[in-house]
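Title: Prediction job returns without error message
Component: structure pipeline
Severity: low
Priority: P3
Assignee: unassigned

Description:
Job completed but the reporter wants confirmation the result is attached to the right record. Sequence as submitted:
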Amino acid sequence: MKRKLKLLTGAAVFLAGLCAAPGLYAGFNDGGLGARTAGMGQAFSAVSNDANAINTNPAGLAGLVNPELSASYGKLFTGLGDDSKIGQGYFGLAFPARQYVPGVIGIGWDELRLSEAYCETVFTGAYADTIYPGLSVGGSLKYLRKTYVSDGYTESDPLFAGNGYAKSGLGIDLGGLYRVNENYTVALVFKNINRPDMGLGSEDRLPVQARAGAAYWLKKGLVDLDVAVSGGGYDVSVGAERMFQGRYLFRLGFLAGNDSKRNASLGFGSRFGAVNFDYSFTLPLAGVAGTTGSHRLAFGFKFGEAERDADEEARRASAAAIRDAKARLAEQEEQIKALEQKVREQEEAAKRAAEEAAAKAAEQAAALELSTVPVTVIEPAAPKAAADAALELLKEELERSRKEAESFRERLLTLEEGRKAKAAAAPAARSGAYVVQEGDTLESIAAKVYGDGSKWPSIYKANAGSVGRGGTVKPGQTLAIP
């Protein structure tokens, strides 16, 4: 009985502590559940480019091209003095449904549990679409449920006897995400805008949370700044992510707010083809005492990512082969120029040798005419013969070099034609996605995919969150094909 009373008292303290510590909210008011989000100090609203967008900013779902799955588990506030075990699990799935509707759908589940005392569960359905070039909007409907454990203590409490042990409600979130240009995105999110009543025995409406964010995208990383206001309180968070060697990620985050709220976060991640793993550690510096911090471990899978990686590897291998053929051709052409110069020099040398031989023969003929005694005539053919032999060797070497250069040209032409043929066949080989090739435009892609370049607006609308202003695309970029 004392154990139950201690845990229920701990539950009340726990809920109050969560609401006082931004970035570690109760599930009904969470800034983000994944390890990636937590590792960046909850500064994620203007990023939201994966399945975790379901709970960070539903508008971010519009940028997804292929289905994505995300799952995470967290041990929160480890080391509490009352031995409370606080865990949180999350599962999310986001998938484009453009064959039925023009946007992206997401479904999520998360559960926050205080062992033997209390549980919060949230089921979420989300939807997002691009409504204007660079601007996407999204919303989510949440089924919220909180449950208290039934035991001898709660059974004798009039609050539970008259109102039961659970309370349910519906919450609504809305979000917007705008890509200003290639480097900047901004976001605005409103959570629980209908203020669902989650009180047990008396009214207790969840406060509306308004969150604004801005992100700056680097070549191999990003920085995000979020400001959130909820129920008279506020917090400011900043997070950064950096990729190393194209596979490993490092994250830092810091969150601060009113009432001396302070959190520091650290995170790591790795990406292996379609699979990614993430870990985060969050330490409350103020606001919640007596804890050694919170740990989260997450797993993600991007359907179609392995195929895109294989396509990218093939594209890179093809590009490398073309570069190699071009380099070899350039070297061969330089060698041809050098040999041609040597041939010209040798021809001049042979010409001089012939002239010298003719002059020598004329001198000998004149001496023979004037001489009264027999004169032995020496034929000066050796220098001329040597020069002619050297010239022949150079001409043979030049001819070989020209043949090798021609073979490199043929190989280069074959590689380039193969790349173009593969690019043209890519849409037919993999429906729903297209990898941009060198020289592609939205109009040329529409001509390849649909056979009609005038249908490019359909591709633009489906990818407005990822293409540049004016519909510019880059080689290697993957576009959704509606």
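Comment from assignee: result matches the submitted record. The chain has a mean pLDDT of 80.
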